[in-house]
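Exercise 3.2. Students should predict the tertiary structure of the chain below and write it as structure tokens, then compare their answer with the key that follows.

Predict this chain's 3D structure.
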Amino acid sequence: TVELIEKYEHKWDWESLSRNKSLPWSIVLIEKYINKWNWHGLSTNESLPWSIELIEKYQAKWHWGQSWRDINGATSGILGLSWNNSLPWSLELIEKFEEKWDLKIISENPKLPWSFELIEKYEGKWDMWSIQHNEGIYEKMLKPLLTDEFIDEVMAEDALFEFKLETIKAGRSVVVVPMSDEEAEALA
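Answer key:
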């Protein structure tokens, strides 16, 4: 409770407290202990009363996320706000803080308002591996296009279907590869 936080203010592990999803989060609570919070912990805490106004009010304190490639080329990072699924994700929010987001991390976030418009707006800045494996993109953009008519059209084409194990496990898209004459003859 707020009373317990106040009573033991000097004894708390503020880093852990900042990540605690069960606190009665409010702007008043955040403001009261503004210099005690661990802002990285707050940035990833999905229980805060997230709004554009809250993000704007403390924009200099938030940890927005940071990614890098390790020696094997894999993307690693500190997720921060860029991965927080509880933000009020909208095109307006993304545009308002456009220079702050880590687009490699945000490319993986399934909660964004994924649309062709959003992808085109930041074309060339997305992490394409993450985009291709993002379930939110599949659910919001591709799944609605997979009608019986579309599948009939694809199946009527002379094409091979390339299934990738991780794609099948995730229940995501199939890659259609045009069939060469040699492949067509081998199937005949």
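Discussion points: The longest helix spans residues 148-156. Residues 165 and 171 are 10 Å apart (CA to CA).
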